[in-house]
Amino acid sequence: MEKNLTKIVATIGPACQSEELIKQLILSGVNIFRFNFKHNVIKWHDRMIQRVNKIASNLGVRVGTLIDLQGPEIRIKLPKDSLIISRGQILPFFSITHPQIFPHLRSGQNIYVDDGKFKFVFSKKSGKSFLASESEGVLLDKKTLNIPGVDFPFPVLIDRDFQGLHLAARNQVDYVALSFVRTENDIDVLRKEMKKFELSASVVAKIETNKALDHLDKILTVSDGIMVARGDLGVEIPLEEVPYQQKIIIKKCILKGIPVITATQMLESMVTSPLPTRAEISDVANATYDLTDAVMLSGETATGSYPVQAVEIMQKTLSFNEKKNLVDSRLRFNFKVEKESELLAEAAYGLCRSLSHKKKNFAGFIVFTATGQSVRALSRYRALYPIFAFTRDVRIADQLTVSFGVISFTLNEQKLEKALSVLKKSKYIKKGDVLIILYPTPNKGTRVMGLSNVN
C-alpha cells in the first residue's frame, strides 16, 4: 500500500458534509480535515468532527482534525448571503466583526475584501462611512477584510473562539490554528486559554500578515506548526513577494523541525470547474519541490462542485512530483544537529541514502517514540521513504499525521515483531524488504539504530 509523503488537508463544508463524501475524501487521500470556525454554527462543527472521527475509525484510517479559529481577523457581516457589487458603486461600510476600527480609518484608505478580490476606497461624509468600489462581482458574506499597513490592537481571541476551544477539548481535536497571528505573544495567549480547557492539541500559527513575517523566528519557537496562509498574506504584502516568502517560511520550518502547511487557492478554479488550470497544478507541484509537509484545500472542498475530484488531482500531482526530489537534503539545508534525537535522525538519513542506492527493497523507517520528537527530527530530512511511527500515546499518533512521510500507529507493546506484524497486515511491507529501525531505551527516548530484514 502506497501513500503520499506530502499530506493533504481538506476543509469540510456544505459541499462535502455527507458521510459518503467524507468517506470518498479519506479514500482519495485526505489526511487532515480542517474545520473553519468563521463559518457555520458551533453545533454543525461538533456534529462534523464526530462524523469524521467515526468514519475514519470505521475505515481503519488515521485522520487528523484541525480547527481554524478566527482570532483578530476582520470579517464582513452582510445582511444576506451575498451582494452584487458594481465598479464605481458607492455603498455604506459593511457591518464587521471588529467595529472598533472605524474611528481609526481615514478617507482615501484602500480596503480589500475576500483575499483582495474586491478593492474599495474608504471615505467619510457627514459622520457616516462609505466605500467606493473599484471591483465588480458577487461578494459573499463573512469574507475577510484587510487594510494593509495598519495594525489594530485587537484581542487575540474573540468570543466565538472560546466556544471553539471548548468544542475542541470535548472532541480531542489534534490541531488548533490561529488566524492573523501578529507576534509570538498571540501564541502564548492562545496556549494559556487552551490550558484552561485542558486542551493538549498542537498549535498552528497562520502566517498572513507583514508583522508575522517580521516576528517569524520567534513565532516558530513557540508554535507546533505553521500555515502559509497565502490569501490574506497576498493582500498584506505585494503579490509578487508571496512565492518568495512561501519558500522562506517552509525552509525555516524544516530547519526548526516543525510541520508547515501551504494553503489557499491551490486549485481555486475547481470550485466551479472539474479540471484545474495548468498554473494551479504547477503551484501544487512547486510546493512539493519547496518540501512542504502538507498542502491545503479550502473552498475547493468546502463549497466547491468537485470536492472529491480536487483531492484526487492533488493526490496525483503530489505522488508524481514528490518522487523527483532526489537531492540530498543535507546539501540543501544547513541542519543544526545538537540533540540526541537529531544526531540519530541524521545517522538514519545517511544510512537511508546509502541503502536506497544499493538495495531496491529498502522500504523505509520504523521509529518507536514516546513524544514524537525523534520522528519529526527524521521527517525534516525529507527522505523519499515512509516513516512508520509507533507510539503508545494516541494523541502523539494523531498529531504526527501532518508531518512529511509519517504514517503513525498506536502500539502498546513497543516491540519490533509487533510493529512488523502491523505493517505486514496493512500491506505496507512485504517479505524481503529492508527497514531502518530506531529503538527506544528505557526512560531515555529513541537512542538506538538498527536494520531489519522482513521475513
Task: Explain what the structure shows.
- The chain has about 450 residues and is α/β, with parallel strands linked by helices.
- It folds into three domains: about 5-70 and about 155-320, Phosphoenolpyruvate-binding domains (TIM Barrel), CATH 3.20.20; about 75-145, M1 Pyruvate Kinase, Domain 3 (Beta Barrel); about 330-455, 3-Layer(aba) Sandwich (Pyruvate Kinase, Chain: A, domain 1).
- Helices cover about 35% and strands about 25% of the residues.
- The protein has helices at about 20-30, 40-60, 160-170, 185-195, 210-215, 215-220, 230-235, 240-255, 280-290, 300, 305-320, 330, 340-360, 375-380, 395-400, 415-425, and strands spanning about 5-10, 30-35, 65-70, 75, 80-85, 90, 95, 110-115, 120-125, 130-135, 135-140, 145, 175-180, 200-205, 225-230, 260-265, 295, 360-370, 385-390, 405-410, 435-440, 445-455.
- Strands 1-2-3-13-14-15-16-17 form an eight-stranded parallel barrel, surrounded by eight helices. It has a five-stranded antiparallel β-sheet with strand order 6-10-9-8-12, covered by helices on one side.
- Strand 8 and strand 9 form a beta hairpin.
- Helix 1 packs parallel to helix 11 (about 305-320) and helix 6 packs parallel to helix 8.
- It is elongated and about 80 Å long.
- The mean pLDDT is about 90.
